[in-house]
Amino acid sequence: MSARNLPPVYNKIAQHAVFPKMNHDERARYNFLANLNKHLAHVSQGNKTAFENRVEPKFEKEHGRKIATTKELEEAISKDAHYQVWSSLRRSTMEMRQQAGRSIVLRQAEELRDKVNALNAGKDSLVLDDSVEVPPYLLACDNHIMPGSYHTELIKDDVTPAANYDTGLFVTTAGLLGRYSDGGGKAIVSWVKKTYPDFNPKRILDIGCGMGHNVLPIAKAFPNAEVIAIDTGAPMLRYAHARAMDLGITNVKFMQMDAAKTTFDDESFDWVQSTMFFHETGGKSIYNIMNEVYRVLKPNGLTLHIEQPQYTDDMSLFEKFIRDWDALNNNEPYWSKMHDIDPAELMASSGFRKEDFMQIGAKAENDLDDGTQKADEPEDHGRSPIWNVFGAVKN
Amino acid sequence: MKDEKLDYIKLASNKPKGKRPYFHNDPAVERVLNITMALAGEVAVMRERMDSIERLLEKKNVMTREEIENFVPENKEQEEQRQLWHAEYIGRVLRIVQQEMEELENPDKSLEEIANDINEM
Question: Rounded to two decimals, what is the model's pTM?
Fold first, then answer.
């Protein structure tokens, strides 16, 4: 077998008690979509070529100057045939992924709900609160073009939004986050253990935990810590809790709460973590949430936030544009605005000292990496498990 | 919230909230491409199923995959059946191209015109 860079077959994904049942063709459909995602990541390089060889020269000829803004760039490139077909195929692939996932989980919605309920029954480590409102930024559109987003319940005690998310993340990322899609959480644990070998957090807060895939490695790495994971989506929390129970991780309490207005005491956590969360919030909420992070963090406490790579000054207009493709065409709209915020300023506005701000790069730890996933893989903007981590130690 | 069986076929294909972007100048191109890609996916699913069947048949010593690889039609009848299948298949898939060609060769009146004609018949 040649060392071609192929996505792992779908059956490599880790199973757990509440993972949806999938038949042969459903797995095959996901195999097709993972390969299609990978293919389109490669074909994406053609956008740059088309831009440089066709779009930019044409614009310069017509206007007698270079393209000055991403808006101008978008207008110009949207007429290019390669960009059109690439975009159209990429959007189509994402829609197919949602359709495929939903057709798997919705046909077994009640069975999944019953399994989750059985695992959650009588446990005080799942705290739902129906007075918690879904924040307006999550109601404005369905993130990741998931119909119904994280919160919609089609049956009583529905868990299908989380189950759908769980089945599909492996496909969208072509398996690069590992068998449990927890490569982000694992990466942060490794960095923290290496950088602060004596750090022994007693209480850890994970905000915007979703189905809990990134908080579990943290809880596992610090088994004596009391870990609390919050989210506003009840379906996500139900599923996350049942999933954690089945995977034998019992030191996480999942609570329905808005990260902008938590009920925790001041200075009550040693570590506040978020993973790929802030870019799914909103322009005012992001400041409110950071204020909460500062408030609940103990002095000398650590906070880290895994996010999409920031725009940098040396980044070309084209790169900024293509990095925003998912933001506008795969429904993650705030991501396109968050670029305008300097994370150091964001943290400083909440009280963190500027000199305590830190920024590091992180790459997913992938338990499926067998060496065939070559380093020269083109970056699939918005999908590659290569992130920016920002944070601080509170002083 | 009623706890009744979900219409999962319809629900699975729901649109997400947020206006859908169209990338081609004509939305019809987008539409056709999306249907075509869905079909491409189903062909891939079928291919994977065939692969499973072949491997299982081999594992159970019914035949080997090599036999399948090396199989060629064994008589004239089989040759014709195979080629006929391809011809029919292509005719089906490329129906619209054939019909546009027929229209070029023999331009039609519109149905409105025909209705007016018939009204005089």
Answer: 0.89
